[in-house]
Amino acid sequence: MDWISLLFIACALAMDAFAVAIVAGLTLEPLTRRRIFRLAFHFGLFQGLMPILGWLAGHAVSDYIAAFDHWIAFGLLCFIGGKMLWEASRNLEEPPNPRDPTTGWTLVMLSI
Hints:
Layout: H1 3-27, H2 33-65, H3 69-89, H4 104-111
Helix pairs in contact: 1-2, 2-4
């Protein structure tokens, strides 16, 4: 992979983490230094480790799935797109459950 591709991947990861951090920060009532640190630390840790782990995993299985990897990508994109369309068409009348996005599994899922 060349440096231009790495630069674009890094910018895309940074924009994604920035957007999630802004939304998480807007939902917090008392914005404390501790919450800011937790968000920044976890996002930085996960955004730094995920490309490395993805490269290692891809390098380990690339020989086995090279013949049908495009079908895996197609299936994942269809699943995600279908789930988005299904959730958008549902009529949700109950109010959302407010959670602290800087604790527990919510923080881990936002970081991923």
